[in-house]
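Issue 218. Parser rejects a valid record. Input:
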Amino acid sequence: MPEQLHSLNINEINSFQEKELKKALNYINTNSPFYKKLFSENNISIDEINSLDDLQKIPFTTKEDLQEFNNDFICVPPGKIIDYVTTSGTMGDPVTIALTDKDLDRLAFNECNSFKITGGTNLDIYQLMTTIDKRFMAGLAYFLGARKLGAGIVRVGNGIPELQWDTIKRISPTVLICVPSFILKLIEYAENNGIDFKNSSIKKAICIGEPLRNEDFSLNTLGQKIAEKWELQLYSTYASSEMGAAFTECPEGKGGHLQPELLIMEIIDDNGKPVKTGESGELVITTLGVEGMPLLRFKTGDICKVDDSNCACGRTTPRIGPVLGRKKQMIKYKGTTLYPSALYTILDTMDEVSNYQVEIFSNEIGTDEILIKIGCKSISENLEEKIKDHFRAKLRVAPKIKFENPEILNKSLFTDLTRKPIKLIDKRRNSK
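Output the parser choked on:
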């Protein structure tokens, strides 16, 4: 996988990907029960797919396909499978992903390259603050990537601020790998316990699971709250278990760089057609170099934009901006179309709000309703109206509000079976 690929012009990158696509198609056509059936039923000859544009001759693969026909995507006998992971199940039943030894090498390459994109070297020590168990791919990927980079890694796992700070004191890591909201808990613990966190060994944080930036790449509320307290270099990442690869920001902070050795990406509109440059649409990926469960034209459900201009870091690879929302989570409320992230952004700006959970449900006439459960330590007389005024000012509409004890609400946000806070519960009749 040539490293100079990231400095080639777009035509040269496309030419490389087309060659890799032909290899992937030949492999899939031979080994994938799901795609062999798909090709047969749609009279698709892989000999006719020679360019990236020709991919449009192949139907999309959906999360529902993976859920219903999970084992039919596996291209190797059981004896070749080394590791099993599952998706988070945020958008339905979790899907099992089978990885071979070659796939684990690919995962290591992806994360090693991601570390390099952030300026990482073998002199760094990464403090891994995400789980490596519970069938989770990201923790394993980070470990393998750091090992390939030759860097140090400390597998602390998630939670327990006291243990995190004890590790920082003992080992002097340089980089945190974590969910960004947990950095605020680290800061709070440090402030309450006299820890001089601003002069610690930590210089940057690679963040997963939550967005740090607005659509214009400025720091969002969460990012600002961290930056105001702690001058860390913050790096956003975007990834999924299905793609086995990541889009990672460079120090310029202008979007996650595509790794063209690993993925072909498309951005499509509601009709499945490519959007114009700069327009938002659903991200669709085709995996390259995957042995266990390769995917063709997989619809991620995530809405974003692509910037294909050259980055100031010197890389010429396209970048995707912050995920604007998930297609299935789009809400049509009182004539306004919005995504849950817009609600989160407003709630994150309010100091009175300790935590929150959004519920979407269908009313008696079948349209969308929103109820926001808000945890507050103290409720002033006009707090509900103040919160609703914030929503009206930003979104033109105000959802229903219900106040709850923050500790009780926290039990609903975090369960033993989930990896991320359950900020959204979708009870609509057409949701899965």
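Fixed in the parser; the record now loads. The chain has two domains: 1-325, 330-426.
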